[in-house]
Design brief:
alpha/beta, Rossmann fold, six-stranded mixed sheet, four-stranded antiparallel sheet, 10 helices, 33% helix, globular
């Protein structure tokens, strides 16, 4: 399926606020994601990325504000029947007792959405799309970390999603595999036309794949725009995140006598 046959959905996050135990974690978050765009939410640990992601997939409700999918609240009854969304989890979340093919087709099989023969055909198609057709009958433990990440992406694609959410897709990967995953995100976005939201702390990934980026710092959007616009931000906190400058003092030589 190409971009002409399937378009992504438009997402609007408007004045999103969330607190836990009196501590404000999301402080009036606002951004919009265009149909078919790769939008990156980037920030350090503890910035509120995970909380925001849980709201984007409808697992949590905000204290105030809203998330709209094509103008409709993400918490509207039946919205998941009207718009298809898929999640690529940070850990991959593959079941080690199932083969790669069984993992990829699990959603279709559990919900009996297709007969077994058609599920197998869909699974092989998605694995081929990611260059994994030879792994169908292997177990996840037999694959490299990078291949397991790509299997997780293939599993998300069986739904023909209009929205794909990636949670730290390059975590625990070496630099070469991280680049491979970034290229796959871009290639798949162009191929299927889905809207992609990538949540990451990986600066190289963010700038490498994003059409636009938002820097989330301490629960607030500190910068938003194209890669060039974000790099040119005059916010000192943004520049500190983009260009961390740690200096380690040399160890003081001991003067103790033996």
């Amino acid at each position: 399926m190409n971009a002409e046959n399937q378009r992504g959905v438009r997402i609007v996050v408007r004045n999103l606020r969330k607190s836990y135990g009196g501590r404000l974690v999301l402080k009036g978050i606002h951004f919009e994601v265009d149909r078919g765009e790769i939008f990156v939410i980037m920030g350090p640990s503890g910035s509120g990325k995970s909380v925001l992601l849980r709201h984007l997939i409808g697992l949590e409700k905000p204290d105030s504000g809203e998330i709209l999918v094509e103008g409709e609240s993400i918490h509207s009854p039946g919205i998941l029947n009207r718009y298809r969304a898929a999640m690529v989890f940070q850990s991959g979340a593959l079941l080690n007792s199932l083969t790669v093919a069984e993992n990829v087709g699990l959603y279709l099989a559990e919900h009996r959405l297709k007969p077994p023969g058609e599920i197998r055909k869909i699974v092989v198609e998605k694995l081929r799309l990611l260059g994994l057709e030879d792994t169908a009958d292997k177990l996840p433990a037999q694959l490299s970390g990078g291949m397991r990440k790509r299997v997780a992406v293939a599993r998300a694609l069986v739904m023909d999603p209009q929205l794909i959410l990636y949670d730290e897709p390059t975590s625990e990967l070496d630099p070469i595999n991280a680049v491979t995953i970034g290229k796959e995100i871009v290639r798949l976005n162009r191929h299927i036309g889905a809207t992609s939201i990538v949540v990451t702390h990986d600066r190289e990934l963010g700038f490498g794949v994003g059409n636009r980026l938002a820097i989330l710092l301490q629960g607030e959007i500190a910068a938003i725009g194209t890669a060039e616009e974000v790099r040119e931000s005059r916010n000192p906190a943004v520049q500190e995140f983009l260009h961390p400058n740690f200096r380690f003092e040399p160890a003081t030589q001991s003067t103790a006598q033996p």
